[in-house]
TrEMBL record:
Origin organism lineage: Bacteria, Bacillati, Bacillota, Clostridia, Eubacteriales
Enzyme Commission code(s) on record: 1.1.1.23
Binding site for Zn(2+): 255, 258, 357, 416
Protein's job: Catalyzes the sequential NAD-dependent oxidations of L-histidinol to L-histidinaldehyde and then to L-histidine.
Positions annotated to bind substrate: 233, 255, 258, 324, 357, 411, 416
Swiss-Prot/TrEMBL keywords: Amino-acid biosynthesis, Histidine biosynthesis, Metal-binding, NAD, Oxidoreductase, Zinc
SUPFAM superfamilies with a match to the protein in the record: ALDH-like (SSF53720)
Name of the protein in its database record: Histidinol dehydrogenase
Organism: Desulfosporosinus acidiphilus (strain DSM 22704 / JCM 16185 / SJ4)
Catalytic activity: L-histidinol + 2 NAD(+) + H2O = L-histidine + 2 NADH + 3 H(+)
Length: 430
């Protein structure tokens, strides 16, 4: 890879919409959704056998208590200790997000307010495939727990032996997941959205997945709510001459190793740092276990971009709106006010992106594909709904009736006007 000047960069390549508009694929997903609607569990068994090469008809889709107990035996004490530390950090962070219902009385006796209520039943999707993510279990389930959700249902594709990764099962148990099913892909999203004989439908679906999962979430939206349309992982690092090439290269590859479609971008006013980091990426790729995936990502969607100064680099970051944004510059707090469109910002060289992925506390389910321009990370509000409260007094209704009736009649809604007037016992024809 060569260092490129900002004016020569094809920004369209770097700001692509990750979930795409593949009409043929959307049709295939629609067929899967329809099949689950019509055939229920039978469709889930058929597709699990077809796509995951696992026959679950005998043992069923639901993870048993015995499987959970076995998972605890398999993971080891060190993993469990680290998981519980991460859980504590995530809970503490998200507990600060929770808001409460409010009621505000007026001197005329009326009361207005807002109830903040948890959703009753939510579904979380946990990817399988090329990697498994116990951290995603914590990030999806724990904000729901803080919000007060009582029923948290997890689906995840089984491994070839018909099991889920022990670490994923233990994370689910620790995070308060109430039901776990071995089903993935678009069929798993369909089961959560529409329900089957074994899986009762949910109110909202969260969690990232492959393109089939993303398109399925897109199509079931409206039947249920969803968190977002998550695409491949992204990182943009803005570094000045204080950055260290070895560290920056490792950070870029930490996202490139996720997926061949992942995006890793380094921006700097220091051409020497850019060139040194590009060389360091090549060196680190040589012995990276997921090096083939990371190299494909780096060569297709990676970039090393030279800018005039940090301010120009920030403007570029705000235009691209990356999922993860590392600001590795001297005194990063002095630039924080210029950060506008990113999913999460990591300040300084001691805040690499994986700290946020696993341990610090903020949620790692973040907007991708440029949607950080208008979307937020997964949070406690994701799992809550707001109900307006209106309690008018007789005095307030008499005071406002004439104006309410006026507005109603201007919209041509006579019954609206009369519904007010009948209560104040006088004709307010206007």
């Amino acid at each position: 890879m060569k260092v490129e000047n900002l004016k020569d960069i094809n920004l369209k390549r770097l700001t692509r919409k990750s979930y795409g508009d593949d009409k043929a694929l959307e049709l295939r997903v629609a067929e899967i959704l329809e099949s689950v609607c019509e055939k229920g569990d039978e469709a889930l068994y058929e597709m699990t056998e077809k796509f995951d090469h696992v026959n679950l008809r005998h043992e069923g889709l639901k993870v048993t208590a015995e499987e959970l107990q076995g998972a605890y035996r398999d993971v080891g004490d060190n993993f469990l200790q680290a998981l519980r530390r991460a859980k504590g950090n995530i809970l503490r962070y998200h507990e600060k997000q929770k808001r409460i219902s409010w009621l505000e009385p007026d001197s005329d006796g009326s009361i207005l307010g807002q109830l903040l209520l948890p959703l009753q039943r939510v579904g979380i999707y946990v990817p399988g495939g090329t990697a498994s993510y116990p951290s995603s279990v914590l990030m999806n389930a724990l904000p729901a727990v803080v919000a007060g959700v009582k029923e948290i249902v997890m689906v995840s594709p089984p491994r070839p032996d018909g099991t889920l990764l022990p670490e994923v099962l233990v994370a689910a148990a620790e995070a308060g997941v109430t039901e776990i099913y071995k089903v993935g892909g678009a069929q798993g999203i369909a089961a959560l959205a529409y329900g089957t004989e074994s899986i009762f439908r949910v109110d909202k679906i969260t969690g990232p997945g492959n393109i089939y999962v993303t398109l399925a979430k897109k199509q079931v939206f409206g039947t249920v709510d969803i968190d977002m349309l998550a695409g491949p992982s992204e990182i943009l690092i803005l570094a000045d001459e204080s950055g260290k090439a070895e560290e920056l290269a490792a950070d870029l590859l930490s996202q490139a190793e996720h997926d061949r479609l992942a995006s890793a971008i380094l921006v700097s006013p220091s051409r020497d740092l850019l060139e040194e980091t590009v060389k360091e990426v090549e060196r680190q790729l040589e012995d990276l276990p997921r090096g083939e995936i990371a190299r494909a990502s780096w060569e297709t969607y990676g970039a090393a971009i030279w800018v005039n100064d940090v301010s120009e680099g920030l403007a570029l970051a705000n235009e691209i709106a990356p999922e993860h944004f590392e600001l590795v510059v001297k005194d990063p707090y002095s630039w924080l006010g210029q950060v506008k469109n990113v999913g999460a910002v990591f300040l300084g060289r001691y805040s690499p992106e994986p700290v946020g992925d696993y341990f610090a506390g903020p949620n790692h389910v973040l907007p991708t594909g440029g949607t950080a321009r208008f979307y937020s990370p997964l949070n406690v509000d994701t799992f809550m709904k707001k109900v307006s409260v209106i309690s008018y007094s007789e005095e307030a209704l008499k005071r406002d009736a004439q104006q309410i009736a006026l507005l109603a009649r201007r919209e041509g809604l006579e019954a609206h006007a009369r519904a007010v007037e009948v209560r104040v016992k006088r004709n307010l024809s206007l």
